[in-house]
Design brief:
Layout (H helix, E strand, L loop, with lengths): L5 E4 L8 H11 L3 E6 L4 H13 L4 E5 L5 H15 L4 E4 L15 H27 L9 E6 L13 H21 L4 E8 L5 H14 L3 H9 L10 H12 L10 E4 L8
Parallel strand pairs: 1-2, 1-4, 2-3, 4-5, 5-6, 6-7
Helix pairs in contact: 1-8, 3-4, 4-5, 6-7
The structure holds nicotinamide-adenine-dinucleotide.
The site of nicotinamide-adenine-dinucleotide (NAD) has 28 residues, from α1, α4 and α6.
Length: 269
């Protein structure tokens, strides 16, 4: 259980996204959840927060672009002031932009993908550390960070944007380096590596593959589903369950893990 823990989730504005499911799951375990996302997702943030509150959940929402360090600082400061502490950070914000081919990808798309997926995760981790360190130790634990990487952070998979793969490998590396540095200070860092998850990001992937290969999005999905042992993409709640495990006390001896949650999909090259 995560009773009375304060958890911040980035990229939690999209109604069908993994972030929203994570917020609901952590709240279901007793956490006070803070949903954050970019300005363009403000309506989704508000709606998500109100839906949780209607279910009796203690939820807040803030606009926070993870690529803007000052904005991250100011939101974390407000959260700590309003809610008294921060215990859990889930770095879920991500984009999948650009081509899967080296000679096709635009430099700006590559840079933007690194800015959001890697630097955004770095910004939030660096800014949250003082708050986690200031928590009193509970069974030697002061806080937990879960980064949403990808199966593409463990191996290169065909048709996935190359910048996305590079960024998620970097998120896994960052997670492990931070886990090592903060293990004896009571802060655990782990990564969840989803395979295919049924969100708008997956729909966009099929739209692009369909255009590139002259097939329908449904055919593109069927082709990918065939590569998954369980024969289907995950629902966001199935990813959220692993986040709740890694964030909570059941995983007190787990740090530096990059955990595939991929239905038996192969991790690629
Ligand atoms: N859907 C999949 O198949 C899949 C597979 C593996 C990993 N993932 C990862 O899961 C995470 C969530 O993805 P999703 O599938 O729910 O997609 P999604 O597009 O629904 O969610 C991503 C969220 O990140 C937000 N975001 C984008 N840029 C941001 C920024 N600069 N600052 C803050 N928020 C920002 C978006 O507004 C959006 O709400 C991502 O990190 C993604 O890479 C998804």
């Amino acid at each position: 259980m995560l009773t009375d823990k304060v958890a911040i989730i980035t990229g939690a504005g999209h109604p069908m996204g993994i972030g929203r499911a994570i917020a609901a799951r952590l709240a279901g375990e007793g956490a006070l959840v803070v949903l954050t996302d970019i300005e363009a997702a403000r309506d989704g943030l508000l709606e998500g927060c109100q839906t949780l509150q209607a279910d009796g959940v203690r939820a807040r929402h803030f606009v926070m672009d993870v690529t803007v360090p000052d904005q991250v600082s100011s939101v974390l400061k407000s959260v700590a002031k309003q809610l008294g502490r921060i215990d859990i950070l889930v770095n879920n914000a991500g984009i999948g932009g650009g081509s899967s081919q080296l000679m096709e990808i635009q430099r700006e798309d590559f840079q933007r993908t690194l800015d959001v997926n890697l630097m955004g995760t770095f910004n939030c981790c660096q800014k949250v550390i003082p708050y986690l360190l200031s928590n009193p130790a509970d069974n030697n634990q002061r806080g937990s960070v879960v980064n949403i990487a990808s199966l593409c952070g463990l191996g290169a998979i065909a048709d996935i944007p190359i910048a996305y793969t590079a960024s998620k490998f970097a998120v896994v590396g960052l997670t492990k380096a931070m886990a090592l540095e903060y293990a004896d200070k009571g802060i655990r860092f782990n990564a969840v590596c989803p395979g295919a998850v049924n969100t708008s990001m997956r729909e966009q992937l099929f739209t692009r593959i369909a255009e590139e290969q002259g097939i329908s999005p449904q055919q593109a999905q069927a082709l990918e589903d065939e590569t998954i042992a369980l024969g289907r993409g995950a629902e966001p709640a199935e990813i959220a369950a692993s986040v709740a495990y890694l964030a909570g006390p059941s995983a007190s001896y787990v740090t530096g893990l990059a955990m595939p949650v991929a239905g038996g999909m192969a991790a690629g090259l």
